[in-house]
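Reopening this ticket.

The earlier resolution said the output was attached, but the attachment link was broken on my side. Pasting everything inline this time so it's all in one place.
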Amino acid sequence: MRLRIPLPTLMAGVVAGCATAATLLPAPALAAAAPAAARPPAATAPAAAASAVPKPLGPTVAAGSDDFAPAAAPLPPALLGQAVMGQPAGTAVQTTPRPAASAPVPAKPKAARANGAKDTQSCTPADFGSRTGSGLVSFVEGSTTDCVNTLFNVTGTDAGNVFKEPQMLSVAQAFQSLAADYTGDDSTGIWQLVLFLRAGYYVQSYNAGAVGSYDAALTSATKAGLDAFFAGQHWTDVNDNNGSVLYDVLVLTDSANLQGDYLKVYKQVLSSYNNSYNAFPKLVNAVNSVLSAPLWRGNYNPDFVTAVTADPSILGTLSTFALGHEDLLTGPNAFLDENAGNDLARMSGDNATIEAAARPLVKAVLDSARITGSTGPLYVHTAYQADAFDGAQCSYYNTCDLPAKLTAAILPDTLVCDNRTIETEDLSPADLAAVCTSLRGEDTFFHNMVKDNGPVPGQYDKTITLGIFANQADYVNYSWAIFGNSTDNGGQTVMDPTDPTNQAVSVMYQKSWNDGFTANVWNLNHEYTHYMDGIYDMKGNFTTETSVPDIWWIEGVAEYESYAYRGTTDTQAMQEAANHTYKLSTIFQNTYDNSDSTRVYPWGYLAVRYMFEKHPADVTNMLNHFRAGDFQGAYAVYNSIGTAYDADFDSWLTSCAAGACYAEGPTALFDASVNGATVSLSDKSVETASSDRITSWHWTFGDGTSSDQQNPTHTYAAAGTYTVALTATDSSGKSASTPASVTVTTGGTTTLPTCTDARTDAMGQNCSRSGRAESAGNLDYLYIYLPAGTTTLKVSTSGGTGSASLYYDPNTWASPSTFTASSTTPGSTAQSLTVTNTTAGYRYLSLYANTDFSGVTVSTQY
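Inline output:
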């Protein structure tokens, strides 16, 4: 049964039981309670889903973090299915364009070239757009894969110059030429050619006006290259060198909408997979590319549907894979099995012939999996697609009203708190009551802060459901299928206030460590602010709200309310204030496209706080326009300020960083230094505007252990990145908590997988380069690209013979005379340094040979 706890009963102390159930390489970003089952309407037939056809896949990028996600309407099944497709840990596939950046690229110092290193060639859109024919082909082949990946984000004139059909034809023909003699690796530059073609199809799908149309000539040329590739002997090699190239070739079959021509290839890839592949993560990802690209998106291509109708054996291949590899569901490659069930059920809705063949196979997968436990993700993906695309058979599949079925199993406890319905997986009655109390108090705080006159006329969603999962894993596995939100984030508000049938939802989860939120519900008050802002401040839906650059307000006010209401210090914002990275006039132009998480959240907080404290009349004027639906008028209020407040804002930042913006009471602060597997922690907590003093400290180390010492040291049993959190409590009993990530190595000799970029001087995320060598007095140069949101980089060297010093510089090729960080332990090759990062971009490393050295391994972690 489902448990619904009225608030008075809960507050009275009745305890109820739970129911069962790609930038460029620069020089060396108060109504009745809502019904519990109210959910965003889901499509129940292919026609409903077909209105939103997924675009070709973009590049592989770092997975989202605990950052919030934009408030948005529920995604339709077609786009939601693509957004939640399983990928290897730490990675995601870009499905919408991101802004591109460019920077000049100098040659390496002559010392590097003297050792045979290849000069880094420039990498700007103009470098590609100004070349044609063989010149373009040679340039693409000579570029790094990192460089070519930046082309996925070109727009406008650049998009047209780089990806006109003649350019694509030249590269497709070169791909065919190399494919015929594919060697099983990227020694010929074939990988860069394939990436270029993928980027072209992706960019053209979003910029057709600038790029122009692609016709049968390009399709034919691309197919000729693919045919030559799959006719060769090495595309089935079982190793990561082949896996890296094969991934993008298989995705290219989808990008070019040739899915129907390669069913035999897809079957061969899936049928050949066995657990021996698991030693080769790039090859595993190539197997997954079949599941996450052509066998998903091909269903929107009539030629693919025709091919499957004529030969539905791919359905049996998917069924055999899903049932035969359920052992994967308890390991790091679980996404393979989930995606196989996902694709099988998606195909059931293509037409009557395919449905008849797929129906018993889908049912067998569903019958083999439970909603909860290790098989839960396989069940959810399979059931969701069956319900969305073959809804007429929901009784046969037992998937009718799937969101309610999943809610009963995963979020069984419900508390009605005025106009809020709180659905929770694992909150105690006391914690449920505390969450309700927190939200009630936040209502009053918000209205006093923005001084609204009640709900904006015409805005619906006067009730809200809050779904609270017990942990991030369950949030990722189930939230999307219940609430229609993307889950590559730390929580999301899903609402369309202009739709009278829409039910507003805020989805979140509990942290495993103390984050300072009530009941450890991560971003509880931030997400609830989004809901109130959408009802009381902003007339229209999310698309209307973001028609002007107002993300500084939308995300900034949610951050500001969250910290101000709870009376805690935004320590990240205070650190950013000390950096003086942005002007206020720059933050006023924030969009989700031009800003990374640091610019959106802590800098949004700073901008909103400054405006409330120093220019409240401007805030009131802006909000009056927002509430009238005049977003251009609201934008004019702060855009017309121009740079007038920039100098004062900069001075205010200095005061903030010095303590003027700290909350009354304790603020938990600490420094961390890492040596191998050991982290040393130094308490720097402060007490502000109070005669109390900090009297106790509680540390959690992210590995299940803790300490109550003021300045502890801790040694980890295994290498990795851990969240250290400090809770500081003062003499009056008030507490504050602050987390930070630390990356450790076991004794400084952790073996990480080999970096996969074709360039041997390119480092990457959590990878290594072995066998580094240099003669005395010379330098071994390396570089690494850090994506937006990366806050810390750890570099270490180990092994080998001789003596080498390690140098780092964020702007140019590092050396003993040009560096911002170094590790110079005498007489050793074991060096380690950790640097704080503030922006996306390339960073530069070098090993200086104090004496001849050889056999050294360099590792980078972020």
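Reporter confirms the inline version is readable. The CA atoms of residues 489 and 835 lie 25 Å apart. The longest helix spans residues 429-450.
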